[in-house]
Amino acid sequence: MLEFLRRNRLLATAALFLVVAAALVVRTGGGRWRDDRLGQLFLELMAPLQRAGTAAGRSVTDAWRSAADLWRAREEAEVLRARVVELERDTARLAEVELENARLRELLAFRETLKGELLTARVIGHDAAGLSPTITIDQGSAAGVARGAAILAHGGLVGQVFLVSPHAARVLLITDHNSGVDAVVQRTRGRGIVEGAVDGRCGLKFVKRTEDLQVGDLVLSSGLDGIFPRGLPVGRIVAVDKQGQGLFQYAQVEPAVDVDELEEVLVTLGAVVPEAPPPLVGPELPSSPPGR
Questions:
Q1: What is the pTM of this model?
Q2: Are 135 and 159 in contact (CB under 8 A)?
Q3: Where are the beta strands (DSSP E) in 98-229?
Q4: What secondary structure letter does DSSP report for 280?
Q5: Where are the domains of the chain?
């Protein structure tokens, strides 16, 4: 018998389990409504574990969902930040385009007050550190720009070209001490020469001492130097010096054009004259006295 069980122990074990399972089924089925102490104990022991397992499962699920939501929120935030940067860039570009259009409209309006061949150019460089402050424009001899061409801007004179390449040109500003503009005071018609000064302003020299120069007088180009068109604003007098006993007096002149903010200019390609009186810079001054 023992030898038989040893040989067929696997089969015997399986039969034993089948018998036990059948007994449990019979007992459970027959005592469905009877008081099952073992089942109650097992249920009591397993309930906390089931609650803990369910809570742990919910916590893991909630944590996973929270992590997924956080990841999605982070991705959405990155997308929104990129969109905000793009919109800010577009807004800045549109604002720049609007400002450029406003400047070009002013330049076009100024261009319409002049008669002659003019070329629009952009300022592509400022040299404020050298002994002779200059600007560089993006038009050169290939576009017809020549040495000595006058450079104008909305509001008045800027300077003249002194160096030209095929696609660029350097401009000597009227504020440079090497520059000179034959000028006339609008109110009195007194003549003089406007030269650059070291402080970024200009000086009106060689004006007869008998001329009545006053602070606020508008100084215009006379056109007699053969470089700058007649009747364009050069600047306004900000101080008058009549000290000494010489034949002439001196006046400080604030330039009509702020070169530091200059971005577009007009280049003369030939003789240019105003078709209409240019707009005054600042408050209008009284007309010349009778008989002058």
A1: 0.62
A2: yes
A3: 114-115, 118-127, 134-137, 150-153, 156-165, 168-173, 180-185, 191-196, 202-208, 218-221
A4: P
A5: 39-113, 119-271
Cα(52)–Cα(32) distance, integer angstroms = 29
* Listed range (6-10, 93-97, 132-136, 209-213) with the worst mean pLDDT: 6-10
Give CA–CA dist 122/103, Å, rounded: 12
Q: Quick one: fold of 119-271?
A: Thrombin, subunit H (2.40.10)
Q: Which two tokens stand for residue 192?
A: 């003089």
| Spatial distance between the Cα atoms of 177 and 201, rounded to a whole number of angstroms | 10
CA distances from 6 to 12, 173, 220 (A): 9, 118, 129
Q: Return the bridge partners of 123, or none.
A: 137
Q: Give the pair of three-digit tokens for residue 65.
A: 């969902």
The residue type of 218 is: L
What pLDDT digit, counting tens, does each position of 76-118 carry? 888 888 888 888 888 887 777 777 777 777 777 777 778 888 8
